[in-house]
Amino acid sequence: MTHYKNVILRKGKTESIRRFHPWIFSGALAQVSPDIQEGDIVRVLDAEGTYLCTGHFQGGSIAVRILSFEDVEIDSEFWNDAIEKALALRKDLNLKRKDNNTFRLIHGEGDNLPGLIVDIFDHTAVMQSHSYGMHLCRTEIAQALMQKCGDFIYAVYYKSETTLPFKNGDVPENGFLIGQTSDNVAIENGLRFHIDWLKGQKTGFFVDQRENRQLLELLSKGKRVLNLFCYTGGFSVYAMRGGAEYVHSVDSSGKAIDLATANMNLNFPENKQHKEIVADAFKYLDKTDVPYDLMILDPPAFAKHRGAIPNAIKGYTRLNAAAFSKIEKGGIVFTFSCSQAINKEQFRQAVFTAAAQAKRDVKILYQLHQPADHPINIFHPEGEYLKGLVLKVN
């Protein structure tokens, strides 16, 4: 068995590990070998020298991301087993179908692999590392993906240039680890989408809104729809299939608008009911006099860390108040926060304040969240990041 370096905890700092929380914070460490490097696999011991867990070491406030609470070797067998378990869950969820080949296969802590994301787009797996330890293991992980998913995956693309907090200058380049393909069209619930894993945000497509887009489709018939922060236009395409009277897609990025347009044309060529607008969402809401009775507010994360929470809450309040002020009487608003630092109560309070400011009668119809292929480890409640409300505004 490989000889891993040891990390020793302070006395009385084992409680979170006994509760199977997947992170160990730097303040809990008593002793770290001077030759331990960022990304090393380490064995964690308590103050008496008893084994607790094995994980990736890193600098910063999160010092160890735990891979196993059993004293095992992190080798090809480990990766194969972890991916097999993750794949079994997705098969149980019936996510790989003729009308759907887009889903998340690995969701970090939710699949007991903190720091690793893998999304499946048809025959391509897009892998993203959020820790240097996962970056160092990328080749072994890609090989395990092919071992367990080779009957439907032909290529593994690595996309971590913007997600790794590097301190040692080893900046990765995005690119294929195994295979290669230029076919970037995948199917979600019978709709086709271009997946921009080369230059797009995250892995190229927001898989986590799949079921929420389906709900929007059911409520779109005859509606005049505004999709703010539209990015790839996912909500817009679903609204069009749902029978919307017209759909306007707004994003401050011209490239995002181009992608939204391409996705609309892929499903509804020569469609005259869709309009693309390059504009700041706040400014557009402030100036527009176009009537809308269904709005989607799906902004990027307003708070990426706890210090940004007060400003983020102000941002959510301002955005929702503007939407409530403009939407037609009896309209519906889909509003979201993908900020992990913002909890459900804080988000709801921001929306409540917005309704009061706009002086509108607002009712909650649905409470939304991330889908089952983005599982939440019950010992890691921080994994519940996506929050959404569907609101009736009178």
Structural description of this entry:
The protein is α/β, with parallel strands linked by helices and 394 residues long. It has three domains: 64 residues, PUA domain (Archaeosine Trna-guanine Transglycosylase, Chain: A, domain 4); 113 residues, 2-Layer Sandwich (Transcription Regulator spoIIAA), CATH 3.30.750.80; 186 residues, Rossmann fold, CATH 3.40.50.150. The strands form four sheets. A seven-stranded mixed sheet has the order 16-15-14-17-18-20-19, with helices on both faces. A six-stranded mixed sheet has the order 2-6-5-4-1-3. Helix 7 links the parallel strand 15 and strand 16. It is globular, with a radius of gyration of 22 Å.
Compressed to H and E, one letter per element, the order equals EHEEEEEHEEEHHEEEEHEHEHEHEHEHEE
Mean pLDDT: 93
For CATH, the homologous superfamily of the largest domain is named as: Vaccinia Virus protein VP39
Briefly, what CATH class of the largest domain?
Alpha Beta
Compute the gyration radius: what is it? 22 Å
Kindly state the percentage of residues in helix.
25-40%
> What sort of overall outline do the alpha carbons produce when their principal axes are compared?
globular
Profile the largest sheet. Answer: 7 strands, mixed
Q: Treating each run of at least 4 consecutive H or I residues as one helix, how many helices?
A: 10
Please report which band the strand proportion falls in: under 5%, 5-15%, 15-25%, 25-35%, 35-45% or over 45%.
25-35%
- CATH architect. name of the largest domain: 3-Layer(aba) Sandwich
Find the structural class using helix and strand composition.
alpha/beta
The number of domains is 3
Can you tell me the CATH topology of the largest domain? Rossmann fold
